[in-house]
Amino acid sequence: MKPSAMFATATLLAAAAVAFAAATPLPPASAAPLAPTPPMGWNSWNHFECKVSDAVVRAAADAVVSSGMKAVGYQFINIDDCWQGQRDAQGNIQPNDRFPDMAALAAYIHSKGLRLGIYSSPGPKTCAGYEGSFGHEEQDAQTYARWGVDYLKYDWCSATGDQRAAYTKMHDALLRTGRPIVFSLCQYGWYGVWSWGASVGGNLWRTTDDISDNYDRMSVLGFAQNGLERFAGPGHWNDPDMLEIGNGGMKDDEYRTHMSLWCLLAAPLIAGNDLAAMSPATLAILTNSEVIAVDQDTAGIQGHRVAEEGPLEIWIKPLADGTKAVGMFNRGTREASMTVRFEQLGIGESASLRDLWTHRDLGEFHSSYEAKVPRHGVVMLRVRDSSLR
Ligand code: GLA
Asked: How would you class 358 by CB atoms within 10 Å of its CB: exposed for 0-12, middle for 13-18, buried for 19 or more?
């Protein structure tokens, strides 16, 4: 067959596959909703960028298990940009030579009780210039499902046109695979995505442009989330971007602020460091189960700011058991004495407090609590109104 005839046949086959897929009814919504609490896992981008490979991903999966991160809830091992190779003659996406066998990689990750995430774009190219899914949405969704992918980050980048239509198209394609695949929208918070992300099938959507590993950037993004709380809830989360904890650009107090704030925000907790080579301090921050419990609370309420005085901010997140998680944040450059008044928390006369970073019960307090908070640091509490049983 002449190459042109082969191409025509392949195009016809591909068109038929798409027509068939488009005509296939959507399966009923799965009984178990996806992302009932904010997704937790790891993603290759913040540390490895395009230096990601099968070996890097396997090492991350190994480390999630051996470090104890899996035991506290980290589950997704997500490959970001730069895994893609060329499409074959039928238009099927192939991984590049750093990923010899995606199905085998997925099987390895599943064998550890973890789940695999992957990355694409509704445009012709990804942000790093690799092959995107434009015009191949059905085919790519089927390929991901065949490999055993459990999570897709879909990054706008080179795409044009109507964002809702583009995200809906991929979401419908994912549904038609019959495989539960968490759908992560990444379009940097444009066009108020929080108000429509869930309606196009998003389980989470980025609310910001990219984070970087420094206090100024992290804090500007995180503290700006106030006001978006009404758009988040079980199955659909605001995503102020992945964690930078352990990447080296912040002090431990600053990373504790990062972790505390993301947990108060009910944000996805997607670690972005080199898990195979992290310090004990990094691991302790990433695996503080009392802080993670705030993020993963089943009520799924995103926290908000209740007080702001210069660089000092108090945030609250109501929890399912009636207690309240509270963050006392010092965004200033010197240690500060901060006071939280119980009336700011909607709490009566007295309350018992637990410090979630020192893991100490602080006892019962009346009307207020005062603490010294380090520069760029946080005191994070769980507060139980004494009138609660
Ligand atoms: C964008 C996204 C990042 C990352 C890169 C990859 O910048 O916002 O999170 O996925 O693309 O190229």
From this structure: exposed
What tokens were used for 13? 């086959």
| Weakest-pLDDT range from 29-38, 100-109, 274-283, 294-303 | 29-38
Atom 11 of ligand 1: nearest residue by CA position? 127
Give distance in angstroms: CA of 52 to centre of ligand 1.
13
Listed residue (214, 216, 218) closest to 240, CA to CA: 218
Q: What angle do CA 299, 300, 301 make, to 5 degrees?
A: 95
> Considering Cα of 366, then 372, then 376, then 382, what sign does the dihedral take?
negative
Q: Which residue has the tokens 């006001």?
A: 227
Q: Please determine, for residue 22, whether its predicted confidence score (pLDDT) is greater than 90.
A: no
What structural domains does the chain harbor?
22-294 (3.20.20.70), 304-388 (2.60.40.1180)
Please tell me the predicted confidence (pLDDT) of residue 31.
54
Distance of alpha carbon 186 from alpha carbon 43, whole angstroms: 14
The CA–CA distances, whole Å, from 298 to 2, 202, 287, 295 equal 60, 19, 18, 9
Asked if the model's pLDDT at residue 6 lies above 80, the reply is no
- pTM of the predicted model over 0.85: yes
Catalytic residue among 62, 210, 252, 355: 210
* Residue 155 a catalytic site member: yes
Ligand 1 atom closest to the Cα of residue 80 is 10
Alpha carbon distance 336, 90 (integer Å): 63
pLDDT digits (tens, 9 = 90+) for 106-118: 999 999 999 999 9
- Respond yes or no: is residue 385 known to be catalytic: no
User: Considering only CA atoms, which residue is closest to atom 4 of ligand 1?
Assistant: 45
Atom 1 of ligand 1, residue of closest alpha carbon: 127
